[in-house]
Design a protein that fits this description.
Distance between the termini: 44 Å
CATH architecture of the largest domain: 3-Layer(aba) Sandwich
CATH class of the largest domain: Alpha Beta
Number of domains: 2
Number of strands: 14
Strand content: 15-25%
Radius of gyration: 20 Å
Order of helices and strands: EEEHEEHEEEHEHEHEEHEHEH
CATH topology of the largest domain: Arginase, Chain A
Helix content: 10-25%
Number of helices: 8
């Protein structure tokens, strides 16, 4: 008698697919008519393909979350920064946690979090496009390219995730998103630094990872920026106040709810954008950053705040995760993979907020 238990695709051959059950105690082989690699010509112009997608996803085009790497470090104040290849390093580390499609391409095997006793990514069909093809090293000149990419993603009415790169990429991503959506955007920024610094020598004419927030606050459709985790000592030019800038601790969920409620009350619909700088983490949990700050939060506090954000903000369109170094051992990225998984989980299970 044929079994009714869930089956997952664990290996692809030329025309055969190997299936297994959730306990890996039974195996089946069948021919699959579903074509995993389905990429149109327009999409090929934007990205450099990769051999394997994040979490070994077989999907290429169809999904509910689009993801791509943004290999950029020219906005960093550290000349030899390794953040340019962070996406490649994190993607490689994620291959230790493969996620499989079920036999009907309607569900995934997900990833089980033992500590929190829950499955993640059961409803996430991730489209990993690879890394953005950057023709030059100028953030301003990359704006047009990002506009095209986000237009392409928005035409499919999906959410997206970007892996940087230095934090200056958030400026061009958010700014172009306001142009495409023509709606107010609320940025939630996890960061050990407030990124509003003032450089007298440069006269603040160049956007970089340490000042991009100042420039975003000038954007009319950026209704507010809520920073979580900022800490450390600040000298002249490294501290900044603005009516649209809010700063919270990891225990301030009630304050977050109050700020969001007030913004919704005064202006109506808001699109959420979450930017996660991995230096917000305690250096002992993730040391592979250019500018570590002591007294960071526990990983459990960070995940709890991420879950709270997705409950409080009605609609979150996109997330980015930035400022990690490449070159570490795969296991060193575990804490960041936790964060990425919970960000993607929030995107896919949030719904449309209506």
């Amino acid at each position: 008698m044929e079994t009714t238990e869930k089956k997952y695709k664990v290996r692809y051959g030329n025309s055969k697919i190997l299936l297994t059950n959730e306990t890996n105690t039974s195996f089946w082989e069948f021919e699959d008519t579903y074509h995993a690699e389905n990429t149109d010509k327009e999409e090929r112009n934007f990205f450099t393909s990769v051999d394997k997608a994040f979490f070994s996803y077989p999907l290429k085009k169809f999904g509910n979350v689009h993801l791509f790497g943004f290999p950029f470090n020219k906005g960093s104040n550290k000349s030899d920064s390794k953040v340019k290849n962070f996406a490649a390093a994190l993607r490689e580390s994620s291959l230790r946690l493969p996620i499989y499609l079920d036999e009907y391409n309607e569900d995934t095997s997900g990833i089980y979090d033992y500590l929190r006793d829950k499955y993640l990514m059961k409803n996430c069909f991730l489209v990993d496009h690879g890394d953005l093809s950057i023709d030059n090293d100028s953030l301003e000149e990359a704006n047009h390219q990002i506009f095209q990419v986000l237009n392409y993603i928005e035409s499919q009415k999906t959410k997206f995730c970007v892996v940087g790169g230095d934090h200056s990429i958030t400026y061009t991503l958010v700014r172009n998103l306001t142009k495409i959506l023509s709606k107010r955007i609320l940025v939630i920024q996890f960061d050990a630094h407030h990124d509003c610094g003032s450089d007298i020598l440069k006269m603040d004419k160049e956007i970089c990872h340490s000042n991009f927030v100042r420039f975003l606050l000038k954007e009319e459709l950026v209704t507010g920026i809520i920073q979580i985790g900022v800490r450390g000592l600040r000298s002249l030019g490294q501290y900044y106040n603005h009516p649209k800038l809010f700063q919270l601790n990891f225990s301030d969920l009630n304050k977050l709810h109050s700020i969001v409620s007030e913004l919704l009350h005064t202006g109506g619909e808001i699109i959420g954008y979450v930017s996660f700088d991995v230096d917000v983490l305690e250096p002992r949990d993730f040391p592979l950053v250019d500018f570590p700050k002591i007294e960071g939060p526990k990983l459990q506090e960070v995940i709890h705040m991420i879950q709270g954000i997705f409950k409080i903000i009605p609609f979150i369109k996109a997330v980015d995760i930035v400022e990690g170094q490449s070159g570490g051992e795969p296991e060193q990225y575990d804490s960041v993979l936790h964060i990425l998984l919970y960000l993607l989980e929030g995107l896919t299970n949030k719904g449309d907020g209506k």
